[in-house]
Amino acid sequence: MPDTAERLDAADTLEEVQRIVRTTARSLLSAHGATLVLLDGDLCYYADEDSMSPLWKGQRFPAVNCISGWAMFNRKTVAIKDIRFDERIPQEAYRPTFVRSLVMAPILRPLAIGAIGCYWAVPHTASESETSALEALAAAAGDALERFPEGLPARGFLS
Question: Which of 38, 44, 123, 135 is the most core-located residue (most Cβ within 10 A)?
């Protein structure tokens, strides 16, 4: 993680921060996909992703109906072994994707500005070390994202 923090500190653009976050998250957790979500008013904006197949990059969903919004609103990381059996998951959005399991960590500065999610195509229980690694990345990402306020969406109702 120290190397990642240094790379984020040296990033010159918001796009570079997003690239570092998405690729690091996926690699750190050996996930099949990773996403960076930004809070945009009362919406979750899926700003970037690194995934084995397309997910939701560029799309916005109501934060109250979104697991990333749940993580931000509750100010805690959520891990779901099988998304088919969790009422917080909007099944219609996930059904066409490969996603079966996930972990989502909020980015808090101290108010919510986003979340980082990792996804697996098979049932997967996120370990304590995976969860801690994603939370550390979320903290470092928050520091880096705040250096580019002009590129961030409007802070939302969760802030």
Answer: 44
- The predicted pLDDT at position 124 comes to 96
Long-range contacts: 9-14, Cβ < 8 Å, 24+? 9/143, 9/144, 11/144, 11/147, 13/148, 14/145, 14/148, 14/151, 14/152
Residue with tokens 């930004």: 38
Whether the bond between 110 and the residue before it is cis, its omega within 30 degrees of 0, is: yes
Q: Write down the pTM of the prediction.
A: 0.93
